[in-house]
Design brief:
Blueprint lengths: L2 H18 L3 E4 L7 E4 L5 E7 L11 H9 L3 E7 L6 E6 H7 L20
Parallel strand pairs: 3-4
Antiparallel strand pairs: 1-2, 2-3, 4-5
């Protein structure tokens, strides 16, 4: 299963989960999270992390880390076993603040963009 399909499936799973909890989740256009959810317990800004298996440690982008630091409505939902028996774990911001391990800076490059042939 390709990463984009895994991520799309995880988003569908979380949207359905939110509906079962009486909340309405929609894709977000804001930076730092995937979904905005409204309903009982107030609004939620949800970042969804997914995997085919069970993963304990995950990296977050800088925008997501800033949300943890500043957004009281921020949550991370992890969806493990996406393709078989999905399991959702919900981490509210207050819990995320205690999970932080270390900071690493990552730089991503697109080597296919604007490439030139070697002479």
């Amino acid at each position: 299963m390709k990463n984009s399909r895994i991520e799309a499936r995880a988003l569908d799973i979380v949207i359905a989960y939110e509906a079962r909890c009486g909340r309405i989740a929609r894709p977000s256009r804001r930076t730092g999270f995937d979904l905005e959810s409204l309903g009982p317990g107030g609004p939620r800004h949800i970042e969804v992390k997914s995997s085919l298996g069970v993963v304990g440690r995950r990296w977050l982008e800088r925008a997501q880390y800033l949300c943890i630091r500043t957004d009281p409505r921020f949550f991370v939902y992890t969806v493990n076993n996406v393709s078989s028996r999905p399991r959702i774990l919900v981490f509210p911001r207050r819990m995320l603040l205690t999970c932080f391990l270390r900071q690493e800076t990552k730089y991503w490059f697109d080597f296919h963009k604007n490439h030139q042939r070697e002479s």
